[in-house]
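Supplementary Note 3. Input sequence used for the single-chain structure prediction.
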Amino acid sequence: MIKRFCKGNEYVSRLSNGPMEALNRIVKDQKRYAHGYRNFDHMRNRFLFSQRLNARILALPKTKEEVTPSGLPRGPYKKKTD
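The predicted structure, written as discrete structure tokens, is reproduced below.
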């Protein structure tokens, strides 16, 4: 039992482990969908990225001049042969 305060009133309520169980299930589901990640950092980053509520974009998109500094259009891809 824990004392809680809401709008100036005090009441006693029970603790629940429901929120922690929900978080554990999310992790287990993502591990199942991953089919065995070999890189822990990649799996951790994927989990954190998927759980963001209001993701911010911290970078600005590059301008056309930054992408092609010479101003010339990019040519077709030509595969090198040995």
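The chain is about 40% helix and 10% strand. Strands lie at 2-6, 9-13.
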